[in-house]
Write a structure and sequence with these properties.
By secondary structure, this protein is mainly α. Helix content is 72%, strand content 0%.
Length: 377
């Protein structure tokens, strides 16, 4: 844009904004937008900024219908003025926000997360249809969104999920066969998540997944189904020999090295025989009192054992998140667990774990007994 044209445009803009009619402002908006799009590929960021300032001023007094048209027009431009796009994306009217929320490359991850935390289901649904979504964005969408958002994300091949994201989707799919099928057909689904999904799904869902899966995914699904079936029909596992683990953790404790750092490493490496032996030693109760807590789907008992062992929450959290043959805990379950951990005193946790051991009922480690023991002591 030449300096003369730029000056003339600014003068005309001032006139339209201050005293012009809505029709005049709309005409100006269209002229500026058309002028921008005709030169967008040749403009640098400073020049785009000039258009941005003009468009922001014009949109301040524009009706939603005109803004929706502008949003649609700018949504596909990789050079669209950033502040204009941001204002459109934050707009309360879904018709205005949706086009740029679903397509514009000029919105940052921070913008998307902020909008997802601020706006309602329709805005979240628009974000869910973007070609690419980071784990940070999908975490917020799944936390605040409804079932429509979950379905949109599950079928969006460009969406990436954190451990929390997958756990949330698996939890929701337990009562939603259609969601389970969408999630199960994702090419990028981790095998651990697929096994958990199929363990909760009915036989009809498994059959439909096998029929609908492309050849490159079918083998992965068959392997996961076989693993689930083997777990269901497998005989009781032979008792675990903890002799070596007990000797090792005893030596570490004598050397002053059996603390959070060491036990955290055990958890990340999946060395749960060492963890059982360590918790047994640190709480002064038998292996038989600790062992069932590891496999219990409810985390309450294990949280008590970690607290009684003087571990910090980050270590307890790592133990809970990496347990073998256990479904991933949801974010809400982890948040609830953190609240229990922080509220429970060390003395109460130690009395509770000794109480279970003395009663000889820790082998079952059922959640109702856990709750009674904590409240009674």
């Amino acid at each position: 844009m030449s300096e003369t044209a730029s000056t003339a445009l600014i003068v005309e803009l001032e006139s339209a904004v201050k005293g012009g009619t809505s029709e005049r402002r709309l005409q100006m908006l269209r002229q500026v937008t058309d002028l921008f799009l005709s030169d967008a590929d040749r403009l640098n960021e400073n020049q785009i900024g000039v258009f941005d300032d003009v468009l922001v001023r014009l949109t301040e007094q524009m009706e939603a219908r005109a803004l929706a048209q502008l949003s649609t027009t700018l949504s596909g431009s990789s050079h669209a003025p950033k502040e204009t796009v941001r204002q459109l994306a934050y707009h309360q009217e879904v018709s205005v926000a949706a086009p740029v929320l679903s397509k514009s490359a000029r919105l940052s991850e921070g913008d998307l997360i902020a909008i997802a935390n601020l706006r309602g289901p329709q805005h979240l649904l628009a974000i869910s249809s973007r070609n690419a979504l980071s784990e940070g964005v999908t975490d917020v969408l799944l936390k605040r969104g409804d079932s429509h958002v979950s379905h949109a994300l599950a079928r969006n091949t460009g969406a990436r999920f954190s451990e929390f994201g997958y756990a949330t989707l698996v939890e929701s799919s337990a009562k939603d066969d259609a969601l389970a099928e969408k999630l199960g057909l994702r090419m990028d689904i981790p095998i651990k998540v697929l096994r958990e999904l199929l363990s909760r799904a009915g036989a009809a869902v498994r059959d439909r997944l096998l029929k609908a899966a492309p050849p490159e995914l079918r083998a992965k699904i068959q392997e996961a189904i076989q693993s689930v079936v083997e777990q269901i029909v497998a005989p009781a596992l032979a008792p675990i020999d903890y002799t070596e683990s007990e000797a090792m953790v005893l030596a570490l404790n004598r050397a002053g090295k059996l603390g959070d750092q060491t036990i955290n490493r055990f958890a990340t490496q999946g060395e749960y025989t060492h963890i059982v032996a360590a918790l047994s030693l640190l709480t002064s109760v038998k292996i038989e009192a600790i062992e069932p807590l590891i496999a219990n789907p409810r985390p309450d008992g294990l949280i008590v054992a970690c607290k009684a062992s003087r571990l910090d929450w980050s270590t307890a959290n790592m133990i809970l998140r990496n347990r073998p043959h256990c479904r991933p805990l949801t974010r809400q379950e982890l948040d609830d667990g953190r609240e229990v951990f922080d509220t429970l005193s060390l003395s109460s946790a130690q009395r509770t774990i000794r109480f279970w051991s003395a009663r000889g009922s820790a082998r079952k480690a059922d959640a109702p007994d856990t709750a009674v023991a904590i409240s009674d002591i």
